[in-house]
């Protein structure tokens, strides 16, 4: 198998080397994430499988300052960045200071690592997409095999581009004609193709969202049903539900929800989706193992776990949400999915602080249900009662029978707020807070990032268990240029063909 290096290729498009893939059948037993396939990778079915699994590897543990195993973009970084841009998880050390206090720049590592890792992942999958029909024609793959791989790559392409949009562009809910991100639909595997890749413009947010839906509609048609460790038909539908929520396409959200009601279910116990194996709630996760994970500097159980239990414990639950009046003290998501130390309260969703094998949950059915609850609430009228029923299906399973379920009359005008608060509880430590802040600020229901507990000021459990004053800081109005991340300077400097515009204020 040939190996060759190409120097000075645009870093966000391509890695440092182009090499063929070795054969592999395990998602967590893959070649290094800085490698992408050459033409030989598509000459046998096992090599194609390995190339496909290499995309999952590049998602699970991509690059951060050109070092593998820091959890970018989906090993853990999307969770950590999504949480710490919001107010419900608390930055206890300097590690996430840039994200927590909104001090990123075109040179800061967090946003640079996310941009580069996502586009490297996108480039890898686009190369595969460009070779599948050839492999089919040559008899290397059957039609079903080729279509399945197409579906996986299209799903992952949409997932990656949406992650870029919520960090580097203004929300669809504000102005679909605002600057989006370059939506790359072809791969760069040769120096001669670099100018064509560089010429892909940012386009508009609306154009990008339209392409997201096109990719996911196609993926839904190609993908079979499957388990949560690989892209599957349910995952494509669930991601469309999420994206249509950002587009305020309430009828579309409900249409996607309806497709999944007979395939998945909210688990009776909120703990179940986080204790290994499969459940009716898990739709898609990026898988980790003892031998292939983002490591102690990026794995969720290391960063989020209780230091008393062997984790690094750099991030804990914020007392802001812990003391919120909407979170019942008897909620099992408090009593069974958190642990305490003298320093504070930590999530217990990720428990393997030794080998970091906890998967990163990307799509759960409970999200689709809450998306549908919100869509019904937005549509109002007769759908209001349906919204309350869906909300109760999530909330009540975490509460004792002594806590009454919500009613339409009891909630009144507070229905939407209650749904949004339930999202904060249910998805705590799963990275979903920023996406909600992003879309709701664009709509005008929020005004940017709320006040957070001041970085490194929450020094004891007293901030959770008493009325001790919580010092706050780090809010950011939606009008601020800092609300969206800057395009990395390396991207702007390396694009000599058609430089893209920097976000305002940078």
In words, what does this structure look like?
The chain has 506 residues and is mainly α. The protein has one domain (3-278, 282-286, 361-494): Alpha Horseshoe (Serine Threonine Protein Phosphatase 5, Tetratricopeptide repeat), CATH 1.25.40.390. It is built from 19 helices and 13 strands. The strands form six sheets. Strands 1-2-3 form a three-stranded mixed sheet. A two-stranded antiparallel sheet has the order 4-5. Strand 4 (63-64) and strand 5 (67-68) form a beta hairpin. The relative contact order is 0.14.
Short structural summary:
The protein has about 500 residues and is mainly alpha-helical. The chain has helices spanning about 45-60, 75-85, 95-100, 110-135, 145-170, 195-200, 205-220, 235-245, 250-260, 300-305, 320, 330-335, 365-380, 385-395, 410, 415-425, 435-445, 460-465, 490-495, and strands spanning about 5, 15-20, 35, 65, 65-70, 90, 280-285, 315, 340, 345, 360-365, 450-455, 470-475. It has a three-stranded mixed beta sheet with strand order 1-2-3.
Task: Write out key terms for the chains shown.
506 residues; mainly alpha; Serine Threonine Protein Phosphatase 5, Tetratricopeptide repeat; two-stranded antiparallel ribbon; 8% strand; globular; disordered N terminus
């Amino acid at each position: 198998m040939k190996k060759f290096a190409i120097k000075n290729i645009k870093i966000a498009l391509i890695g440092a080397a182009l090499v063929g893939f070795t054969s592999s059948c395990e998602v967590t037993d893959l070649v290094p994430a800085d490698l992408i396939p050459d033409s030989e990778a598509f000459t046998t079915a096992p090599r194609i499988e390995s190339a496909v699994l290499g995309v999952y590897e590049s998602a699970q543990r991509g690059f951060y300052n050109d070092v593998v195993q820091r959890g970018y973009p989906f090993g853990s970084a999307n969770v950590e960045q999504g949480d710490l841009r919001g107010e419900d998880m608390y930055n206890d050390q300097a590690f996430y200071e840039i994200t927590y206090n909104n001090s990123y720049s075109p040179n800061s590592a967090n946003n640079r690592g996310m941009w580069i890792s996502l586009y490297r992942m996108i480039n890898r999958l686009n190369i595969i997409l460009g070779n599948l029909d050839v492999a089919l024609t040559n008899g290397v793959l059957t039609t079903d095999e080729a279509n399945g791989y197409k579906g996986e790559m299209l799903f992952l392409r949409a997932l990656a581009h949406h992650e870029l949009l919520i960090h580097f562009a203004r929300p669809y809910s504000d102005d679909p004609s605002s600057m989006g991100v370059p939506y790359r639909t072809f791969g760069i595997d040769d120096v001669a193709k670099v100018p064509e890749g560089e010429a892909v413009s940012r386009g508009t947010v609306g154009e990008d969202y339209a392409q997201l839906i096109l990719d996911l509609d196609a993926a839904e048609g190609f993908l079979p049903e499957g388990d949560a460790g690989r892209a599957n038909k349910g995952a494509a539908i669930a991601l469309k539900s999420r994206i249509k929520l950002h587009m305020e396409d309430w009828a579309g959200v409900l249409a996607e929800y309806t497709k999944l009601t007979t395939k998945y279910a909210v688990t009776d116990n909120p703990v179940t989706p986080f204790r290994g194996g499969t459940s009716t709630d898990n739709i898609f996760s990026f898988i980790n193992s003892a031998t292939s994970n983002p490591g102690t500097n990026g794995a969720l159980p290391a960063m989020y776990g209780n230091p008393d239990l062997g984790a690094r414990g750099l991030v804990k639950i914020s007392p802001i949400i812990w003391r919120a009046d909407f979170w019942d003290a008897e909620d099992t998501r408090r009593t069974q999915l958190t642990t305490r130390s003298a320093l504070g309260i930590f999530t217990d969703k990720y428990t393997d602080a030794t080998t970091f094998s906890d998967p990163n949950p990307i799509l759960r059915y409970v999200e689709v249900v809450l998306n549908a609850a919100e869509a019904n609430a937005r549509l109002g009228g007769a759908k209001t009662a349906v919204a309350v029923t869906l909300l109760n299906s999530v909330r009540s399973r975490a509460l004792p029978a002594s806590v009454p379920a919500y009613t339409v009359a009891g909630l009144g005008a507070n229905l939407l707020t209650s749904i949004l608060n339930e999202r904060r509880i249910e998805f705590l430590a799963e990275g979903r807070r920023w996406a909600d802040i992003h879309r709701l600020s664009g709509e005008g229901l929020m005004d940017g990032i709320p006040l957070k507990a001041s970085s490194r000021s929450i020094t004891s459990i007293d901030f959770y268990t008493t009325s001790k004053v919580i010092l706050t800081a780090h809010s950011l109005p939606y009008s601020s240029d800092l609300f969206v991340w800057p395009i990395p300077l390396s991207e702007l400097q390396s694009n000599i063909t058609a430089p893209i515009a920097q976000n305002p204020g940078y």
